[in-house]
Design goal:
Layout lengths: L1 H23 L3 H17 L1 H8 L5 H11 L7 H12 L6 H15 L2 E8 L5 H15 L3 E8 L7 E5 L2 E4 L2 H15 L1
Parallel strand pairs: 1-2
Antiparallel strand pairs: 1-3, 3-4
C-alpha cells in the first residue's frame, strides 16, 4: 500500500505537468498516442521494464535505450524530452504509473472512461464494440477505452470493471450467483 501511495504521489505531478504541456501545445492526442505506445512496450518487454527500474543501468544507458526506441519520428520531441527529464530526476522508475495517470487525465478531459475487461478468450472487434456500447449506456461517457486481459480460468464470459462498478458476466460468476440463490432458498 505504501509503495502504491508513494508512486501515486510522484506520478500525479509529472502527469499533470505533461498534460499542461500537451494542452498548451494542442498536442494531447499526439502525446497520448506516444504514452500508449510506451505502455505497450513496457507491457510487452520485461527487459525494458527492468532496464528502466534498475539502478544497475546508468542514466546515460537508459537515455540511449529510449532514444533508440524513439528513433525517427516515433515519439514527439516533447515526449522524448519528458522521458529524459524523468531519467535526469531519477523518476524513470515511475514511468508506468506516470503514463497511466496521464491517460486518466486524458480520459477526464475527453469525458471518457476506462473499462477493464477480463475475458476467457481474446475478444473480436465486434465483441469489443458491443462491450463499449454497454459501458457507454451504463456510464453516459463520451468515449470508452478498453483494457482487455485474458484469463482462461474464467471458463467463459467476461468481467467488466468501470471505476468501482463490476459487472460479472463470467460463467464462474453466474455459477456462484446460482449457488448463492440455491443455498438461500433452502
Amino acid at each position: 500500500m505504501r509503495s502504491t501511495l508513494l508512486s501515486t504521489e510522484i506520478a500525479e505531478p509529472y502527469a499533470q505537468a505533461l498534460m499542461s504541456l500537451a494542452k498548451d501545445s494542442d498536442l494531447v492526442d499526439r502525446i497520448n498516442d506516444d504514452i500508449s505506445s510506451l505502455l505497450n512496450l513496457l507491457k510487452e518487454s520485461d527487459e525494458l521494464r527492468l532496464c528502466m527500474t534498475s539502478p544497475m543501468f546508468k542514466p546515460e544507458q537508459k537515455k540511449g535505450i529510449l532514444n533508440q526506441l524513439a528513433g525517427g519520428d516515433q515519439l514527439h520531441p516533447y515526449t522524448q524530452n519528458f522521458l529524459m527529464l524523468l531519467i535526469d530526476r531519477g523518476r524513470i522508475v515511475f514511468l508506468e504509473p506516470i503514463c497511466k495517470q496521464f491517460q486518466a487525465l486524458v480520459r477526464q478531459l475527453k469525458q471518457a472512461v476506462l473499462a477493464e475487461v477480463t475475458s476467457a478468450v481474446d475478444l473480436s472487434e465486434e465483441q469489443q464494440e458491443s462491450i463499449r456500447q454497454k459501458v457507454t449506456a451504463l456510464t453516459q461517457a463520451q468515449q470508452v477505452d478498453l483494457d482487455i486481459k485474458v484469463d482462461p480460468n474464467l471458463i467463459g464470459g467476461v468481467i467488466i470493471k468501470v471505476g468501482s462498478q463490476i459487472l460479472d458476466l463470467s460463467l464462474r460468476g453466474q455459477l456462484r450467483q446460482l449457488g448463492m440463490r440455491l443455498t438461500g432458498a433452502s
